[in-house]
């Protein structure tokens, strides 16, 4: 139980870090958003593998992180932000429509997961897997095309 609460707290803290980023630095902001997604993905994977006891609250926290990222992440790729310490592939700016479609797919999958999770989160790990699986699939697909490493 303590591990589940700690994992949920971590996911929410990472999401809070995103809000604290300066709006003037899109690279730092998108890195912070991806850190929150990585935390949510790590928690999700651990719960799906049985390494961390599943709880609806932790599931809801992870899904909430995915949802927040899905609805904000695409805003932090303005022209000129492809330079510097970033893993964003040049393909993002070369194929803007494709990238925007990938971000929209994440937002749709995360929004569907939010709806499926209800007020209290998915009732059990199987419901969580069903809700989160499509979200993680969109992450994988996007990283294969729009991430350099």
TrEMBL record:
<dbReference type="InterPro" id="IPR002321">
    <property type="entry name" value="Cyt_c_II"/>
</dbReference>
<feature type="signal peptide">
    <location>
        <begin position="1"/>
        <end position="22"/>
    </location>
</feature>
<keyword id="KW-0408">Iron</keyword>
<keyword id="KW-0349">Heme</keyword>
<dbReference type="InterPro" id="IPR010980">
    <property type="entry name" value="Cyt_c/b562"/>
</dbReference>
<dbReference type="InterPro" id="IPR012127">
    <property type="entry name" value="Cyt_c_prime"/>
</dbReference>
<dbReference type="Pfam" id="PF01322">
    <property type="entry name" value="Cytochrom_C_2"/>
</dbReference>
<keyword id="KW-0249">Electron transport</keyword>
<keyword id="KW-0479">Metal-binding</keyword>
<keyword id="KW-0813">Transport</keyword>
<protein>
    <submittedName>
        <fullName>C-type cytochrome</fullName>
    </submittedName>
</protein>
<keyword id="KW-0732">Signal</keyword>
């Amino acid at each position: 139980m303590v591990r589940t609460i700690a994992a949920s707290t971590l996911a929410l803290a990472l999401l809070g870090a995103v809000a604290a980023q300066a709006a003037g630095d899109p690279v730092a902001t998108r890195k912070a958003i991806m850190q929150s997604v990585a935390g949510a993905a790590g928690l999700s994977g651990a719960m799906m593998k049985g390494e961390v006891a599943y709880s609806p609250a932790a599931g809801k926290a992870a899904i909430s992180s995915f949802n927040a990222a899905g609805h904000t992440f695409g805003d932090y790729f303005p022209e000129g932000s492809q330079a510097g310490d970033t893993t964003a592939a040049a393909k993002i700016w070369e194929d803007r429509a494709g990238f925007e479609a990938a971000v929209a797919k994440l937002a749709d999958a995360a929004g569907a997961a939010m709806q499926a999770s209800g007020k209290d989160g998915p009732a059990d790990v199987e419901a969580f897997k069903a809700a989160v699986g499509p979200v993680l699939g969109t992450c994988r697909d996007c990283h294969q095309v729009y991430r350099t490493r």
